[in-house]
Amino acid sequence: MFIRIRTNENVILEIAEDIVSLIPLLSDTANGLSQSDGEIEQDEAIDLNKVTSETLQAVIEWCNYHKICTPENDNRMEGPRSTWQLCQWDRAFFLEKRRIYEDIMEAAIILEMDNLSDACSVYNAQLFHDFQDYGESLSFRY
Question: Is Cell inner membrane a UniProt keyword of this protein (predicted)?
């Protein structure tokens, strides 16, 4: 079964229920619709007017990976935040999606996706750390 989502460009995307279950805002909205009406109509779509279709597709891609990845290939988000680490796949994903990275961060907040928000935070911290290291390496040259 699929849930239909209407993005801010009025594009309709169909998302599998197992992916919707990983996106709290959509899951809660779909559950609310099905409880009030008995079930969601085939042509009914959930409006998501603050997210573009490109960004939502990126979020779906991220969910698809994390739905099937093994614990040893997943992000390490235990203990103090300063010790959290992104898996290689997430680092490559955020790098590949760097043009819409800010939109993905915003979508994670809108969609109430704590795991994706946390991954974005770790990625930002790693970028900052890498930038600091780069700056320090430049200062030794002068």
Answer: no
